[in-house]
Specification:
The chain is of the alpha+beta class. It folds into 2 domains: 116 residues, Roll (PH-domain like), CATH 2.30.29; 38 residues. The longest helix has 21 residues. The radius of gyration is 23 Å and the shape is rod-shaped. The two termini are 41 Å apart.
Amino acid sequence: MNTITYMTGLLTFYLKGEISTDTNFLKLRIPNTILALIPLGAQKDIIPVQQVATVSTSFRLEFKKLLYGLLGVIVGLASLGSSVVFGLLLVLWGVSAVITAFITNLIITTTSGVVYGVPFLVFEKDKANQAEAMINQRIAARLQDTNVRQVTEAQTNAIVDAIANK
């Protein structure tokens, strides 16, 4: 079983997402949070490898999250004079929102048209590419195992060799 773990948030660095594959299944585990601060369970999906149609990655910017983060930083810096604790918390949240506004998504599409999106932090882009390669490798192995022409050809060659070597 191949497993890739990745960070899902800056402020919740201890929460790890997980993508794993074995011969028959692709397993996804994505932690859920409230306001990117408070852990609240996890989303778990198990997808049969034979049902995975395509895997791709995309990089995008969530503009609203970027604006909220910038606003949080500005308000946090402005409120440092009156309430240091509140100002620091708001600045931390704002900086985290700005950084997490840049997202690399691993997009997994099944043969039935269901799309699974797995978000990665901008720092974890390498792991998104590793996960894409790992899943594509598993799909290729599955397709090779079920390729009737190759299996039939190998069986025919084995029979011909057995007859020739009587």
